[in-house]
Every structure is written in C-alpha cells, then in structure tokens.
Amino acid sequence: MDEETSTIKQRIDNEREQLGRNLDEIEYRVRKATDLKTHFDRNTAWILGGAVVGGFMLSRVFRKSDGSGNGVESEPDAPERNAPAASPSHLSRLSETFDDILQGLVGVVSHKLHSFVADAVPGFGEQYAAIERERGRQSAD
C-alpha cells in the first residue's frame, strides 16, 4: 500500500509540474500576443500606413462637414493667389482615385486585422464567419 501511495503521489507531482509548464507557456503566449512594442517592431509599415489612412479619412470627414471644402473662409472680392487651374472633372477623378486607394488599404488592413485576431484567439475564425453569414442573411431579407 505504501508503494501504491508513493506512485499516486509521484503521478500527482508529475501532473503538477506539467500543469505549471502549461501555465507558463500560456502566460508567455499572452504576453507575446499583447506586447505592443513587438507588434510595432514587426509591423511598422502597416501601423504607420494605418495611421496615414486614418488621418486621411478624418481629414476627408472634417473637410466635408465644414461645407466650404477647404475650411478657410474667403473674401468675395479677394483675388485668388496662386490658385491651381484644375477643372471639377479632374478634381472628381482625383477624389475617386483617392477613394479607391483608401478602400483598398482599408480592405487590406481589415484582412490583416482579421488574420491577426484569428491567429491569436482560438475559435475566432469560425465565430467571425458565422457572424458574416448571419449579416449576409439579414441584408438579403
């Protein structure tokens, strides 16, 4: 009986050690996944690109909301100084090009963010896909 008790204690000690190693591994992975400096070092271009895109989007939102288009009030009798000679169609085309670029960048950043979260959180991909299917069903109704 002493031998059996000693075997059980040894098994419990082995399981405790394994559990400790598993907890250490989980803690390491959580720290690694939440370390912003490491993510910035690995994804500097993406983060800076996202900041540029975000700034551009905010500038477009605020430019459209002030009504004048440029945020500066002009005097009716003041002559235009160094005003570029661009037609409305050129500006419209340029605006559409920026919108297309912006949509492409947002799509890429969205995909990268989805991939990052899916890699970091087990089961996220399946839940995300289910939500997208449900959203597709709702928009079809």
Coarse structural class? mainly alpha
Oligomer: single chain
Molecular shape = elongated
- Strand segment tally: 0
Low-pLDDT stretches are 69-80
Q: What gyration radius follows from the Cα positions, in whole Å?
A: 28 Å
Mean pLDDT: 78
Q: Between the first and last Cα atoms, what is the distance in angstroms?
A: 70 Å
Beta-strand residue fraction: under 5%
User: What is the number of helical segments per DSSP (H or I, 4+ residues)?
Assistant: 5
Helix content: over 70%
Order of helical and strand elements = HHHHH
Main sheet?
A: none
Verbal overview:
With 141 residues, the protein is mainly α. It has 5 helices and no strands. It has helices spanning 2-34, 36-42, 44-65, 88-120, 124-140. Helix 3 (44-65) packs across helix 4 (88-120). The longest helix has 33 residues, at 2-34. It is elongated and about 95 Å long. Mean pLDDT is 78; it is low at 69-80.
Task: Record the SSE blueprint.
Elements: H1 2-34, H2 36-42, H3 44-65, H4 88-120, H5 124-140
Helix pairs in contact: 3-4
